[in-house]
Amino acid sequence: MSGASAFGSARVRQLQRWGMGRLRRSRFFPVTIPDRLGDDDALAGTSLRHSVLVYFPETQESLYQLLPWLDALVALDRAAPVVVVCQDSRTAARVRSASGLDVLTIARYGRLDDLLSRSRVRLALYVSHSPRNFECLRFTSMLHVYLGHGDSDKGVSASNQVKAYDYCFVAGQAAIDRIAERVHLFDAAARCRIIGQPQLDSSGVLGLPDRPAGARRTVLYAPTWEGAQPSVAYSSVRTHGPALVRSLLDAGDLRVVYRPHPLTGVTSGDYARADAEIRALVGGAGDRGAVDTTPTLAEAFAAADLLVSDVSGVALSWLPTGRPLLVTRPATPDAVVARTRMGDVLPQLDATDAPRAAELVREHLDTDPTRAERLALVEYYLHDATPGAATARFVAACRDVIAEAERLLQPDAQA
Fold first, then answer.
1. How far is residue 198's CA from residue 389's CA, in Å, rounded to a whole number?
2. How far is residue 219's CA from residue 365's CA, in Å, rounded to a whole number?
């Protein structure tokens, strides 16, 4: 290649990088793709002072997975310094603002490799099974722990992907039993550690005050999203939602709060349209309806007398309230629904039942026939729902893994 040609090619690459940088900084760059506007150059030749790394390569649409963990991570940071590593600068800015933790945006895999080779990070934490996690999972200079973002009876809560991590921190014995039953060639008893659910400590859900006497009885409808594949299509938004909400509003004596999942409609126009229909129904009901999109569950839970949800972590978080709960039965034929203790106890709402939802809701508000059995599930699923207990167990479990990593790994261990 001639000098002129080489210069021309280099100039083209330079312009391409400049143009992509401008595009990534613009409001037109897709928010579902990490912008990779990293701190890479500033990090050259540096090392991390932290012993814990939280790897979160996702964009803002997935922040619902990380945000509930922030208070627990701040508590951990006081015992063992924590850094959050992102691939999207917009996500990093929100995490930094919300938590005060050290947050880095690392766009280039080589920079992460270089940085970790000169650091003493001993523990990596993950809140989802993102395929991008493998960019960090390959490093052998630390131990890797899967946290998840809420326990539930969904099929994804017993994923074969748990084998990628050294340990899984789980909410209760239910999670260990679920993984042991469904994930083969994996020693769940040895590699799962029960910590409870620290997210609930900061959510305000534990220890909610009693509902005020004389308040209009309120139903919280909090469905999950449609899922990324047919086997986890647990959402009732399309199959139950409009008829269910219409029934509750037509009853006249019930208030309805609709809390949609942040990802509702991202993969299916049918679900997006059903979501819009439900929002319109609730929004047109005056003081008898509301749409709740607040970041935490506490406000919605505090204002509700009964929850209608799908197979999801919301149902599990509701258990400590002691209030009635109905769970929808997925109408999608390919959805995989395992038999569980919660499924055996909780009343199931079929799509064909949705038009008479008000009748079923009134029955459970008046008599609450499953209360004793529900309360008996709390320890099995959440271990200890005493406020603060799970966060303390989480911090202690992280310190134990860091100590184990120090014993296993030489100071000069390389990835």
1. 8
2. 10
